[in-house]
Amino acid sequence: MILSPLLFLFKVSQHPLPSLRYLKDTPMSAPSPKIPATVITGFLGAGKTTLIRGLLQNPGGRKLALIINEFGDVGVDGAVLKGCGDAACPEDRVIELANGCLCCTVADDFVPALETLLNRADPPDHIIIETSGLALPKPLVRAFTWPAVRSRVTVDGVVAVVAADAVAEGRFAPDAEALARQKAAMEAGDATVEHETPVQEVFEDQVLCADLILVSKTDLVDEAGLAAVAETVKALRPTAPPLVRVAHGDVDPNVLLGLSAAAEADLDARVSHHDNEEDHDHDDFTSFVAELPSQADPEALVRRLGEVTQRFGILRLKGFIDVPGKPMRLLVQGVGPRIQTSYDRLWAPDEARRSRLVVIGETGLDRAAIEAALAA
Fold it and tell me: NCBIfam families given for it (predicted)?
């Protein structure tokens, strides 16, 4: 029988010697171990979802749970991962938070989502958190110091996924020397440090907070390109952890999980551009959902999407397309001008066969013109 605190005190006062002897001879139960959580961050299209899907297919014997955050009204990544059918992480252990930023909505979204997983009859062995491509990881890690969270979960590690092709092409950062100068000024507390693009600032914060850096899409660059990636990261973090090369999201789960970093206890060592700010916004970026008609010719669609992204400077495209006569939906993933498609699963019998794409870019995108070009 488990006694309430008041009842227990009453029993001790009535029978002091037996109760004291009981307390001395009975071992105290050990506190429940904290459930580890891994935060996977990385810019738009870096390959986070592909990485997680591979992890679900090879979890190393762990029961996993996912919290997925997306920048946009339609949760494409969540739909992809929920539809993969992996026993290690069934759909009811996948929580999707669309059209928001976890680090900005800790109390409203993140903590309740975490508690939902923790309060299950069969809690997970490990929680994977996929941030949106525009999220800053440090504010999210700080959320693990909240009283409702810190006694039950620990940040096993922050994993930054860096796209080799994008970094090698200089899309995220200036040359290494300029990057090193900016880093030194930031560490010296210079509030006037400016970045060439808001993309660069997000990229830097993600790398600076990481316990492990995965270089993805290594099949798209040569050794010179990979050397350029390493130089860029080293300029930003001279003491950065080793870079792990990954192609097609294939990585041993023991490399990703079990880092035991306890990142929430190490916040001061994780430099951020927003350390002196109470919050931050995403006014530099925008997103919308474009509705398209059914597409009979997927190859023509890919060509058109590539042209539209280049013409309007779109950072990211992702969504699902209805191809008449095909029982499966067509998954579209676009990063810059690179467009990839695949049939990911059957349309459900009661599911509307809609063609929808999430369009993400810097503020100022001409939505009407883009929608017209996509529907042409």
Answer: CobW (TIGR02475)
